[in-house]
Amino acid sequence: MSRARHLQACAGWMLVLPALIRNCTWFGRVEKSFTASGRELLLTVDDGPDPRQTPQILDTLAKAQVRAVFFVIGKNVEAHPSLCRRMVEEGHSVQNHTFSHPSATFWAAGPRRAMEEIESCSVAIQKATGRMPLQFRAPVGMANPFVHLAAESCGLKMTGWSTTGHDGIAHDPGRVVHRIRQGATPGGIVLLHESHLRGMRPGERACTLSTLLNTLKGDGYIFTDRLDAGSA
Ligand SMILES: [Zn+2]
Prior knowledge:
This protein has one domain (3-226): Alpha-Beta Barrel (TIM Barrel), CATH 3.20.20. The chain contains eight helices and eight strands, in the order αβαβααβαβαββαβαβ. The longest helix is centred in the middle third of the chain and has 19 residues, at 111-129. 43% of the residues are buried. The strands form two sheets. Strands 1, 2, 3, 6, 7 and 8 form a six-stranded parallel β-sheet that branches. The protein has helices at residues 3-20, 54-64, 74-79, 81-89, 111-129, 145-153, 173-183, 204-218, and strands at 40-46, 69-72, 93-96, 135-136, 157-158, 163-164, 188-193, 222-223. With 232 residues, it is of the alpha/beta class. Strand 6, helix 7 (173-183) and strand 7 (188-193) form a beta-alpha-beta unit. The chain binds zinc ion (ZN).
């Protein structure tokens, strides 16, 4: 490979690589934690709403008196607007997680696609709840410069996370909770999922959530009510 081609390839990777790193801040700000007073955490729940999991998740949160930020998928909001309204009515925050959640390809989205995905999700949330979202989380946390620009022009701040149980794939509750617990620090943003995966029982996500809330409470953590803390 000639020197010029080598440099060209390096420059290409310099642009692509950060888009493949979760919550990467090379192209813009991404909040992954917040300034806590004491052992506070912020709970975020992604990929809903889903009628097989969301109602039980909301019941569990109500029972534990914990409020969460739901990063929802626009097409799910259009399919289940009443679940989205229930989130807001019960004191939770509903935020933007793209319209169709193209997790395999969104890191490579061009300006038009990035804007369409983000804008149409905000419209779906506004229609369902009467509120415009103020935060955006990229699918699997991967975002290129066009995504950062589109989010900014829609008035959205990018929110990441600091600890996750990787429950977007494996969903053994014990392992999910163990992983989140290991990564928990004061001011941390916890990522959980509420999507229904193959082989999962209805309401199974709520069991994981319940175990997580009890475990972290036992460790002396509380979940903050400042639901905009992750967009400061
Ligand atoms: Zn997601």
